[in-house]
Amino acid sequence: MHRITVGDYTVEALTDGLCRIPIPFFPGLDPAEHPEVLDPDGTVHVPIGAFLVRGQGRTILVDTGFGPRETGFPHGVTPAAGDPTPPMGEGGDLLAALAKAGTAPEDVDTVFVTHLHSDHMGWLAPESTPAFARVGLEAVHTAGSIEAIHGEAVPLAPGVTARHAPGHTPGHYVLDVEADDERLILLGDVIHAPVQLRDDRIHFIADHDPTEAARTRRRWLDEAERTSAVIAPAHFPGLEFLRLGPGRTPVAVQGFTSQTR
Length: 261
Prior knowledge:
This protein has helices spanning about 95-100, 120, 135-145, 210-225; strands at about 1-5, 10-20, 45-55, 60, 70, 90, 110, 155, 160-165, 175-180, 180-190, 230-235, 240-245, 250, 260. With about 260 residues, the protein is an alpha+beta fold. It contains four helices and 15 strands. A hairpin with a 2-residue loop joins strand 10 and strand 11.
């Protein structure tokens, strides 16, 4: 996978698995106009992403994937083509990805969940057993270790700030990492697919407030383009770190800040 350095921080993309998203889950998406989004099985393939932020004596895991399970397609929705029919979503790879990155679950001192959808919190407590020494919603709540964040900007570590980005959910946050005049924005589910970069008509079915989600998406993409910040959405193919060129053209970050493991 990919990793990037921002000042003293190293941020590494991790994957927990894959979702095969049917076209109706993207209201406004015309596959005839955007045929490039479709996998041969007729769905939009997106990774289930997470990010590991290390530096300044901290190890922060951003989102925890889908967990060690799979889910089928909803009733009445055309599934992905295949024999046998593949699941709509399948996770379970996050702990192996962490190990490849040289991190054990007990090394993680903070788990930051951008929002409480199942593909972002699946490893908190699979089968009611906390996957991380400090995590598991009920367990950490009982221990007094869980904290709901509020406000427009919430510091998590030096140069690492959670910023409110509502629309997909009312309490959705992005993570902003700034150091040495460099900036990385982990966008969570502000945007789901590259096709949304240049087509504001395309939404996502799980957006709590599609109008606010579109407004938030424009805000963060415009800011990233204006400031030359690197962005990392949670579900873009390859989980690459990107800059936005003219017309929001995504360009993979190369050179001094990005490398592939």
